[in-house]
Each structure stands twice: as structure tokens, then as C-alpha cells.
Design brief:
This protein has 11 helices and 10 strands. The chain is of the alpha+beta class. It folds into 2 domains: 3-161, Jelly Rolls (Sandwich); 172-271, Arc Repressor Mutant, subunit A (Orthogonal Bundle). It has a 6-stranded antiparallel beta sheet with strand order 1-2-9-4-7-10. A 4-stranded antiparallel beta sheet has the order 3-8-5-6, with no helix packed on it. α2 (116-123) packs antiparallel against α3. The longest helix has 19 residues, at 212-230. It is globular. The mean pLDDT is 89.
Length: 273
Amino acid sequence: MDYKAKYITADIKLSAYEDKFFKSDIMFDHHMLVWFISGETKIIQADTTYFFKKGDIFLIPRNQLATIINYPKDGQPHQTVVMHLSTNRLREFYSHLNVKPKALETPKINCFNNHPLLESCLSSLITYFEMRELPEDIASLKIMEAITILRTIDKGIDNILANFEEPGKIDLVSYKEKNFMFNLPLEKFGYLTGRSLTTFKRDFNRAFNMTPQRWLTQKRLELAHYQFVEKHKKPIDVCYEVGFENLSHFSYAFKKQFGYTPTTLTRKQQLTH
């Protein structure tokens, strides 16, 4: 993977992937505001899949699990401007405002298409990437400008940006049933369910009577089989969407579970339709 990143500050970067494909399972520690310059992205969450392309602008809330698949497009690299809206920065912004956010069960990705105010703010950063140094106060002003624009064009955005609560202890079974396709360290899953690593492992074994890795593999293969039979998807698409990192390992595990490869199953499905 040929990845390049230029930083103005730790919170603002120009990101570029020039290979054919890049996949990552991520939980962001900070809200991320993204503006697409070129390329395409598929973002898969537990109950929604998003597609983004050139000109799109969106906000990914913190502490949300997602599989992100980046593609070049039309001979251009996958290139974005990314701005982190950190908790510390947002606390500072809201410290003088009387805002009482409503709790959201699962904050969604907010899509702003190519809103002219946000596009003007984010596109103005391109010039700065060619500079060797940028005063911190200018970068800070650009972030504050972006937050102000978000609050102007989306009256409900305070419920996301001004909510500084950390995850509390939640039902482990329902959470894992919903998010089993994401590859993250167990420590992250423990944090998101309000548990230490030790407590997470203990509660998981009590709930499922097997190790997390064995349970995850089984669930992912069952979902893959469903995707082939009911959705008629291709092995390369199903492999990454259900949580495997490469096609050969996925095919091996699938055959071990069901006795035949994904290719064999998809060919059989094609003959019967």
C-alpha cells in the first residue's frame, strides 16, 4: 500500500492512498470531519453501509465501529482532507455555551454532500499543506470555523459534538451480536462495552461458552454463507465485509466450516438462477 499523509497539525491532514485498495477496521477516538478530493470510500457499520465520492463531506462520530474500504477512482488516488475534532478542542469550544445535548443511542455518520460553507473551509486548507510550518493559532481557527459551520447547518449536531460521556456498561451479548464483523483488539471492545479487558473476557465466556476468536469466526462464516445464498454477492466483497483480512484465509476457513469453497457455492448459485 502506497500511503502518504501531510500534516498541518496533529488534527489536520491530507491523506492519500494510491494502491488499488485499502481496508481497515477502526474505532475513532475523536470525531472526524472528512472532505473528499478524489477516489471512493465504502464505510460499513453494523446496520448501515455508506458510499462516498469526490466532493462529499461527512462527519464520523467518535467511539463508533466501522470497516473502511478506500479505492482510487478514474486514475486518481484516494485523497481526502481529514480534520479531527478532539474532545479537548470541543470542551474548549462549548465551555462558554449553555448547551445540554440529548443522549443518542448510536450516533450516525452525518453527511453534508458538498455544502458550500464546509467545502470552502476545508478546501482552503490545501494551500497550507505545501507550507513547512503553520502557526498553531491559524490551524485552531480553522477547526473552530468548521465547528461553527457545522452548528449553523445542522441544528442537531450539538447532540454529538457536545456529548463528552464515555461508554457505560452495556449488554455484552446484544453488542457483540451486532458488531462481530469488526476486527479490533479486545481492549477496545471492553472499553466500548464499559468493561476492563479481564471483565470483558470473563463476561464473554459466560455468555457464549467459547473464546471470542472462535465465536467471531463462526459468526462471520455464517454471515458470509447467508450473503452468498440470499444476496448473491461475490467472494471478494463478502470476505472483507464480514471481517476477514484476506481472501485466501477466508476461503480456507469457509471450506473448513462448510466443506466447500465460496467459489464452489457461488457457481452453484449461478447455475440454479
